[in-house]
Amino acid sequence: MGNKIVTFGELMLRFSKEDKKRLSQGRMFCGNYGGSEANVAVSLAMQGEEVEYVTRLPSSQMGRAGAWKLNELGVGTHHIIYGGDRIGVYYFEEAASLRNASVGYDRANSAYYYLQPGMIDWRSALKDASVLHVSGITAAITQPAADATFEAIQVAEDMGLTISIDLNYRKNLWRYDGAQPCETLNRMAEHADVMFGDVIEYEFITKHPKIPFLPQTSDYNMNLDAYRQWYEDLHRRFPRCRKMMIGMRNEISSSHHLLTALLWTNGQMLNAKIVDIPQVVDPMGVGDAFSAGFLHALRLFPDDDQRVLDYSLAAASLKNTIAGDFNLSTEEEIMEVMKSDYTIHHIKVYD
């Protein structure tokens, strides 16, 4: 077994308007590649990990350009398969003042939409790997895509890899006939060695009412006893899972967010400080930055779970300052924020 991390999902093309315009305004769209599992792959590569991304793309200019972009950022694409006619698209309208952000998907009939079990040689793709990372989105598009996800998980288990699951529940995606998102996500969670999600996603799979997180400032007192009881219930439901992280965000306004996270590990709950981010540039991909930061930090600090949690929160905090889906932060930059007072006023904003 090697040290490579493999992620699997659908690469998307994102379109937005500049300067927080509505999608109906202006004449020009800005395009970026993204997608949860690709975001994790890029973030890991930026932090120095050997990472491979697996998907199905069309053999077209846009499909090939997506793979080239991942290559530019240090992500391996040797096991991407090609076929189909189009790449999936999503349209993101940025939040502004009282107006919430919105997302519209156009991914039906994409190359990934027609992915089938057996198309990917998983034993070859997972050779020299130690971790497989997938998310709820990986399984949400079609039943065959869900079957391919469990195929990948089963092969990874047979090969002794760590299974990393991000619940990533997006209710607007589960539209195929017979879709059972709660059952499918619970099945995925049962295989997880490491699991990520926010309070809404954990509430969805367990039906345990979420605990409010409504800070206005970073000195907010959380009800840690309530979270601890929730974690104990989660551990009983998913005894295989060694580390479970819950990310939490409160949006004071479209550009002012507060962020924190909790970690269950070795029978105890750890909490991180609350980060005040008054100048959010782009909130897309923050959860993916958490996941990538966590997987990298497990190797940086194998015997210090608190530092693992603090590092992953710092990585997610930095993503809020970077336009686009990808967290283009290096290990050095994340460590600098981790060692600071976590005030994001003075972090450089990237574009």
Name the poorly predicted regions. 343-351
How many DSSP helices?
A: 10
Order of helices and strands: EEEHEEHEEEHEHEHEHHEEEEHHH
Compute the CA-based radius of gyration. 19 Å
Largest sheet: 9 strands, mixed
Overall structural class, as computed from helix and strand content, comes to alpha/beta
First-last Cα distance: 37 Å
Averaged pLDDT: 93
**Any idea what the shape is?**
globular
Helix content class: 25-40%
Number of strands: 15
Strand content: 15-25%
Keywords:
23% strand; 351 residues; nine-stranded mixed beta sheet; four-stranded mixed beta sheet; globular; disordered C terminus
Describe it.
The chain is of the alpha/beta class. It has helices at 36-46, 61-72, 122-125, 143-158, 181-190, 199-206, 224-237, 286-300, 305-319, 331-339, and strands spanning 4-8, 12-17, 29-34, 51-54, 56-57, 81-82, 88-93, 102-106, 129-135, 162-166, 194-198, 243-253, 256-265, 268-271, 275-277. Strands 1, 4, 9, 10, 11, 12, 13, 14 and 15 form a nine-stranded mixed beta sheet that branches. The chain has a four-stranded mixed beta sheet with strand order 3-2-7-8. The longest helix is centred in the middle third of the chain and has 16 residues, at 143-158. The protein starts with a strand and ends in a 12-residue tail after the last helix.
